[in-house]
Write a structure and sequence with these properties.
By secondary structure, this protein is an alpha/beta fold. 28% of the residues lie in helices and 30% in strands. It is globular.
Length: 120
Amino acid sequence: MQKMKIGLIQMGLKTSTDLEPAAIRDAMNEAHLPMIQQAADQGVQVLCFQWYAAAERVPEGPTCQMMQKLAAEHRMVIIVPIFEETETGVYYNTAAVFDADGSYLGKYHKTHIPQVAGFW
């Protein structure tokens, strides 16, 4: 059996909510960088996050582009939960997945109980 080292980063909001969404996103991304490096230094192979950022496109958005580069740099799979805007006015709670070589593997649109047909 092969072992895999998995990491999880959780943190609270690092800036004022009075800022523009892009500024909040950028501040949160910046706050995560040292923790990503620490995970890499500890041999993490798959890294997961818990955050809510300003909606952006997947994988073209700035957060995904940054994480894609970090996945390749640190040779770890990174799963990025993100508030995705697929087209104007259409949003998803998405998990984007980047492989250890930096390639984009795809995304998963999370399903929540209230969104299941017949729930109401």
